[in-house]
Write a structure and sequence with these properties.
single chain; mainly beta; Methylamine Dehydrogenase, Chain H; 5-stranded mixed sheet
């Protein structure tokens, strides 16, 4: 088995008092698909990590695990799992794996024994499982396309349009805050808040919620819920349904169409999107975006994201298989303003143009794309204080000049005629 690894230096820039600052990070990628792994399908629907840091991968053709370079396959041919279309995964405190399918309901696997809960043999309300979550008291909460239910090991309870007044039976996720309050998201039915057995439903019309369709809910370190929306970006309830949003009009998030969401233990927001790849809002409020144009992400349609105990980010895509992203954040560095060096002419022509930089550079000059991808280190003629522009496509680039302990970013427009 083989895979490819590629590293990038990411430089998300902020402007402050005329200076540039950047959070420097190395992005390392591994890609797993049908051509280089045991995966038999490149559509990755759901991910979870168990208590041993083993990755569980749900696909359109079976369930897989990956741990320390070793794959294991679970499907209808080698296990009692009767449905290979896996849509939801969760882990409880005993390291049991809960598995949701599209046709055969819910499975529980303890490493040796498989239990199946379906409409025939249990109180589950539908066999199409979209979401699973395990609460602190080890109740299993199951979201289906016909409402949601829970199972305490003995008893089942259910909530639907008919018996609980839900506005939609299409349930997408659960989250539980530190006080036991539950948040249940829907498609086209608003957000459900649940305390004890009392439900409150908030929609655009009755609560001012930005979107009636939410794909995932997460709780941050301040016990606040955050919601990833299908069309209105990311938003939170700051208290008493006072909503604060991150969307394309007021933030660096590149899209409002979100598909997956996780807040990790370091309070980084890891977000999947429909057409714009993976977005990360770091705990110091920097925004990173990885897509097929600026990284090795194999597909811009992301179904699921999951961070493991080694701080690797696993990304399940619609048609590109599974991606592993390792971000190694370095220190925050100050970059001096553009007046530190004079660079001309700007714009400059690729290959034919000689560019002068003054004062003389005693270090190196690196060229990055505006997405943060390092492209090349250029040769600098110190005697003549010049460099020749390399053969790059027309566009704006960042020249990182390091000289005698001083760092400077110069934005250079390159023309390639």
């Amino acid at each position: 088995m083989s895979w490819f690894i590629k590293k990038y230096l990411l430089l998300p820039l902020l402007f402050f008092n005329g200076s540039f600052f950047f959070s420097q990070s190395i992005a390392e990628w591994e890609i797993f698909n049908t051509s280089n792994s045991p995966l038999e399908n490149n559509t990755i629907r759901c991910l979870t990590v168990d208590l041993n840091n083993k990755l569980w991968v749900g696909t359109d053709n079976g369930l897989y695990t990956y741990f320390e370079g070793i794959w294991q396959v679970y499907n209808s041919q080698n296990t009692p799992l009767e449905d290979n279309y896996i849509r939801a995964l969760a882990v409880d405190s005993s390291n049991n794996i809960w598995i949701g399918t599209t046709l055969k309901g819910l499975y529980c696997f303890n490493g040796s024994t498989w239990l199946n809960f379906n409409k025939t043999n249990s109180g589950i309300i539908d066999n199409f499982i979209r979401a699973i979550a395990v609460s602190d008291n080890q109740e299993v909460w199951i979201g289906t396309v016909e409402g949601f239910c829970n199972f305490d090991g003995s008893n089942w309870n259910s909530w639907t349009i008919v018996n609980a007044g839900l506005l939609s039976n299409n349930i997408t996720s659960f989250a539980f805050n530190a006080n036991g309050k539950k948040y249940i998201s829907t498609i086209n039915g608003g957000m459900i808040y649940m305390e004890a057995n009392n439900l409150s439903i908030y929609t655009i019309s009755n609560g001012g919620i930005p979107d009636n369709s939410v794909i995932s809910v997460q709780i941050d370190a301040t016990n606040k819920p955050w919601f990833a929306s299908t069309s209105q970006g990311l938003f939170t309830d700051t208290g008493n349904q006072l909503w604060m949003s991150f969307n394309v009009t007021n933030s660096a998030i590149p899209t409002n169409s979100l598909t997956a969401f996780q807040i990790d233990q370091n309070q980084n927001f890891i977000i999947g999107s429909h057409q714009n790849g993976v977005i990360i809002r770091t705990n110091n409020s920097d925004w990173l975006n990885f897509d097929t144009n600026n990284s090795q992400l194999p597909d811009n349609f992301v179904h699921c994201v999951q961070r493991d105990a080694n701080n690797s980010i696993w990304i399940g895509t619609d048609n590109g298989g599974l991606a592993k992203l390792k971000l190694n954040f370095l220190a925050v560095n100050e970059i001096t303003d553009e007046s530190s060096f004079t660079l001309y002419p700007n714009p400059a022509r690729a290959l034919t143009e000689v560019v002068f930089i003054h004062p003389k550079v005693e270090g190196e000059i690196q060229i990055y794309s505006m997405q943060g991808e390092k492209l090349t280190t250029v040769f600098y003629d110190r005697d003549n204080e010049t460099l020749t522009i390399p053969n790059l496509p027309s566009g704006i680039y960042m020249f990182i000049i390091q000289s005698n302990g001083v760092q400077c970013i110069k934005k250079v427009s390159i023309q390639n005629d």
